[in-house]
TrEMBL record:
Residues 252-271 are annotated as: Disordered. Signal peptide: none annotated. InterPro entries: AP_endonuc_1 (IPR004808), AP_endonuclease_F1_BS (IPR020847), Endo/exonu/phosph_ase_sf (IPR036691), Endo/exonuclease/phosphatase (IPR005135), ExoIII-like (IPR037493). This is Exodeoxyribonuclease III. CDD domains: ExoIII-like_AP-endo. Residues 4-262 form the Endonuclease/exonuclease/phosphatase domain. Its cofactor is Mg(2+). SUPFAM superfamilies: DNase I-like (SSF56219). Belongs to the DNA repair enzymes AP/ExoA family. Keywords: Hydrolase, Magnesium, Metal-binding.
Length: 271
């Protein structure tokens, strides 16, 4: 079973790249973030022609999350739920979950936070606390995988220059503690670290499993210089983690025409 998480930074703008990924990698599940379109704007016909069903939580020009499932893959998505129970602002489309192939799969786009003194930073911490409560509920019920853009670097090793981020979002102790709280509450593991260990190098973007980072700024050649962050994660219950065959970042899909600033994170599970 192949699961992929990808912040596409606009599904309509990135549709050719999404269709390319579906053909190239044929995921059973593709969790998308920042779809940035209303329900009536989703390219459902094009995705169906590519062999995929869609469940979504859409807002319009901002945010938006979706789960795509392959027609001949792990099965149709069932019992979809849009919106994170306990979140401060349910009008923001940041969470969608459904059951696929016996796994409760969630796609999440965590609040950016903007700055440590910005109201969104406190909202981000609150959102992560709501995620922790939901993770505990889901994992208690069965296999759980939470895929998405967490907007947090779990450790300094997940940031190309942690000293440059001192006093900013994404690397603050409070954010890291809140993300760790999600893992602890659900008894989950970070699939990438579980598979590779903390020592996976950040300075070799072209290794067999791709780079450690998942996001690079569009500016100043950051991608080619590998000045990135690891903020896209797969949080997996421990039993499902034992099925992990490979976890990798598809650097190739960050290249080319009109790429997202994120690369897809791929989790391959043994059947």
């Amino acid at each position: 079973m192949r699961l992929i998480s990808w912040n596409v930074a606009s599904l309509r703008a990135r549709l050719p790249r999404v269709l390319e990924l579906l053909e190239d990698l044929r995921p059973d599940v593709l969790a998308l973030q920042e779809t940035k379109c209303g329900r009536d704007q989703l390219p459902l016909l094009e995705l169906a022609a590519a062999g995929y069903d869609v469940v979504d939580h859409s807002q319009g020009a901002w945010n938006g999350v979706a789960i795509l499932t392959r027609h001949d893959g792990a099965g149709e998505p069932t019992d979809p739920l849009g919106g994170l129970p306990g979140e401060d602002d349910p009008t923001e489309a940041r969470w969608i979950e459904a059951t696929v192939g016996g796994i409760r799969v969630a796609s999440v786009y965590v609040i950016n936070g903007k700055a440590l003194d910005h109201p969104d930073y406190r909202r981000k911490l609150s959102f992560l606390r709501a995620m922790a409560a939901r993770a505990e509920t889901l994992a208690a019920a069965g296999p759980t995988v939470i895929l998405g853009d967490m907007n947090v670097c779990p450790t300094d090793a997940d940031c190309y220059a942690p000293e440059r981020f001192t006093g900013t979002t994404h690397t603050s102790p409070e954010e890291r503690a809140a993300l760790a709280g999600v893992l602890e509450a659900g008894g989950l593991v970070d699939a990438f670290i579980h598979h590779h260990g903390e020592g996976f190098p950040a300075d070799d973007p072209k290794g067999v499993d791709g780079p450690r980072y998942t996001w690079w700024d569009y500016r100043a050649g950051s991608f080619h210089k590998n000045l990135g962050l690891r903020i896209d994660l797969a949080l997996v219950d421990r039993a499902t983690a034992e099925r992990i065959e490979r976890v990798w970042v598809s650097r190739e899909h960050r290249k080319g025409t009109k790429p997202s600033d994120h690369a897809p994170l791929v989790v391959d599970l043994r059947d």
